[in-house]
Amino acid sequence: ENQFLYYGNAVSGSDAASSFLNPGHWATNDLALRQKYNKGDFFYEAGADGRMADDERIEVKRFSAKKLYAKFGDKDYEANLGDLSASLSPYSLDTSLKGARYNRRFKGDYELTAVYGLQKSNWDDVWNHNRAETVDRVFRAVRGSKKWADDAMLGLNAVWSVDGRSHYNTGADLANQRIFSADWQLPTWKKLSIRGETAFSKTDTDNATSAAISQRGWAHVIKGDWSYKDYKTSNEWERVSPEYATTGGSASPDVVRFKTAHSQKINAQWSVNGQFAMFHNNLNHTSAQPISTTRMPEAGIRYEGPEWRPSFSTELKARHREVVA
Fold this sequence. Notes:
The longest helix is centred in the middle third of the chain and has 4 residues, at 124-127. This protein has one helix at 124-127; strands at 2-9, 24-39, 42-53, 63-73, 77-89, 93-106, 110-118, 135-147, 153-165, 174-185, 192-206, 213-228, 231-240, 255-265, 270-280, 293-304, 313-319, 322-324. It is built from 1 helix and 18 strands.
């Protein structure tokens, strides 16, 4: 697949110099190559994406390799090389890497995953140094999981990320981080599903201009979904300590959050929806830092008309946001 784009930018006004757009006429060309093979349980897939761009605000280099990957396996194993999605759990590791991943499935619904990769946006950054890059970050991770009947599951994750000095940016702070987490799901019972994750992080930071620091933190989340006839509800509670940090996962430190959402169908087309969310910071009650509490109630009505178009829908909502510090 090949896509060519030719475009022109015209920037005017008193603050034209601050515009992201680069005045003039430019071109980009994106080339994607794919190959797939299947025989019985065995499969193989490879791909390569490249881009040519003469606008330096789109790509710093004129030619760049955007994606290179190969994956193969069968019903018992899968191996990935090159670009890969390193998704173990939300708190531990959930990001894109360039490296290797191996997944092995065993009898009894046991599964083992190992990951090694570099956090780079382009392949050029792997063998050529990127001037905008702050650190060279390497991830090593392993996950073991077990599944039971009725969607029950337990996963154990261990992630180690290490920062190295960038070639051009030698003044950045370097993090040496270890994360251990357990994600789980209880058996579904009468359409009630409960799942969550608990994680511990230890981060040692080598500061370029000050003394090194070490911090340890916890993160917890519990989610629950339930439905009965035409009624559905989703609820979530999360608490992340101020000291928790993750370089490859997703979590906002120093927050406790609660969210509940409800939906009731009136008929085949109409439904009413309601939602309430609340969160606040400063879990350690530091006197020098104010506690900011946010409350957001929301209500609305939704119409779905598949007889007009399969995906047609419209929704009217009213939301109130209250922030108290």
